[in-house]
Design a protein that fits this description.
alpha/beta; Alkaline Phosphatase, subunit A; two-stranded antiparallel sheet
């Protein structure tokens, strides 16, 4: 075969790797099948990638999801779980019969909330002054105050919050939804991840992995500073005939390479990603151009506020991606553990204040913007964290420090949007906010409820892997019907 692409000598043999390197014109230079008439035979679906049962299983309430994840552990007693008795017991020791098993082993005196609580909106939900802007959206929120985790360790807790399992190697919720429901757009990823501008979370891409699901359901990381995707455009402009000649030649090489490897899923997924990259060359610049938004919208999200501009960009970008057909957008609040996160062992007032100022106005702006655009009726907003924090100080016995340790026995999350009872709270903790005493909700229950809102029976969404029918909720989970409208 002779090369007819300009710039190559057909008499000089090239290894495939060398050819790709010399072809290097950005991802667009190897965005193959879509620019060649969407030749699906190149990366056709394999039998293992077909669902055994049709979806949706029932009429869905939500079409799309945006998840806001607070890395490090939000303190429920300082935010959404009002405990007036905790103020009464401030500075006192836990009852002698309580033997807390906490991460750092330091059980100080009980500490009241670091922020005052007030009833908010017509619903009267009690929310603290830690989130003044979100508090104004109380009537949109559905609080779950009785969440529990199976671990008080950050990394396995974060894996569990996303995949239902404490160890690596299991698909996250965004990947399951991509697998189950597919995409509403041809030119953007189904599952997009917007990391904290300050860094990638602990565990990196394991937090948005497709694991044993087909590789194309992996979350696609967009940067929130600078170009969202690296190498999306060619380094130098090309003539159209040269571009097409290169596509055609490389398409043939990839067909052969794939056939020799029995349709390898990682290779097929990589080729699919190059297809998508070609479409993204047009779609991404448009979707990520926040200058197209009005000044009123930019102010609503807080783009003009230095303390929250980073997260405001992520929230506004999330809305733009959702309205362009992206199924699942995941936003991270908190970078790598040890860096700036919600993990407030020594100074809850300082560290939680810093993190809350970054996200409070943008998240409230996102809720208001979705509502005024009519999108909140079929969009599900998730606001969660891996576990909560203790109502007692993390300090030596008999002392009163400003930090709080990890608490897996009780924490609060909230949902908003499609199919939910708005302005309500589900579940209850004890009088100091330490343990769940009513309507215990596991991570699997939480995931089952989210899938239900998306029209999916969590027990029927499975994938056969290593002899087991795996699912997001493992062998557990019940839909929390009391939070549904």
């Amino acid at each position: 075969m002779q090369l007819k692409c300009s710039g190559f000598d057909p008499l000089v043999p090239l290894a495939r790797r060398d050819f790709l390197a010399r072809l290097g014109t950005g991802l667009g230079g190897i965005a193959l099948a879509s620019l060649l008439g969407r030749e699906r035979l190149l990366v056709g679906d394999t039998p293992s990638d077909s669902l055994d049962i049709p979806l949706p299983h029932h009429v869905p309430k939500a079409k799309r999801v945006v998840q806001i994840f607070l890395q490090g552990g939000l303190s429920q007693v300082d935010s959404f779980d009002y405990k007036p008795e905790l103020a009464k017991y401030h500075g006192k020791a836990l009852p002698a019969e309580e033997k807390p098993d906490v991460f750092f082993g330091k059980v100080g005196l009980l500490h009241q909330s670091h922020w005052p609580f007030q009833p908010r909106g017509q619903s009267g939900l009690w929310i603290s002054d830690l989130f003044p802007h979100l508090a104004e959206c109380a009537d949109e929120l559905t609080l779950i105050r009785s969440m529990v985790s199976s671990t008080g360790n950050h990394t396995p807790g974060t894996f569990e919050a996303h995949s239902g399992f404490r160890m690596m190697g299991f698909p996250v919720m965004g990947a399951w939804l991509s697998y189950a429901l597919g995409s509403e757009t041809d030119n953007l990823p189904t599952f997009v991840v917007l990391a904290d501008a300050r860094g990638i979370p602990t565990g990196g891409a394991n937090n948005w992995t497709s694991a044993f699901l087909p590789a194309r359901h992996q979350g696609v990381l967009f940067r929130t500073q600078g170009p969202p995707v690296s190498d999306l455009q060619p380094a130098q402009p090309l003539k159209e005939e040269t571009r097409l000649a290169r596509y055609q030649f490389l398409a043939e090489m990839n067909r052969r390479h794939l056939a020799e490897r029995d349709g390898s899923d990682p290779l097929a997924a990589r080729i699919r990603s190059y297809e998508l990259a070609a479409k993204m060359q047009v779609a991404v610049p448009n979707a990520t151009n926040l200058d197209q938004e009005s000044e009123a919208t930019r102010a609503l999200y807080g783009l003009n506020q230095p303390e929250c501009a980073d997260f405001a960009r992520s929230c506004l970008l999330a809305r733009r991606l959702l309205e362009r057909g992206v199924r699942f957008v995941q936003l991270w609040s908190g970078a790598e553990l040890g860096g700036p996160t919600w993990d407030s062992h020594g100074n809850v007032p300082g560290e939680h204040s810093r993190e809350a100022k970054r996200i409070d106005r943008p998240v409230a702006g996102l809720l208001r913007d979705l509502r005024q655009r009519g999108m909140l009726d079929d969009t599900l907003v998730i606001f969660n964290t891996e576990f909560g924090r203790t109502p007692f100080a993390q300090s030596e016995a008999g002392t009163l420090g400003k930090g709080r340790d990890h608490n897996q026995t009780a924490f609060t999350v909230w949902l908003a949007g499609a199919g939910l009872k708005r302005g309500t709270a589900y579940g209850m903790t004890d009088e100091i906010g330490y343990k769940v005493v009513r309507n215990r909700a596991s991570v699997h229950d939480f995931h089952a409820t989210i899938l239900h809102l998306m029209g999916i029976d969590h027990e029927r969404l499975t994938y056969y892997h290593n002899g087991i029918r795996r699912r997001l909720t493992n062998v557990e989970g019940h839909v929390i019907h009391d939070v549904l409208a």
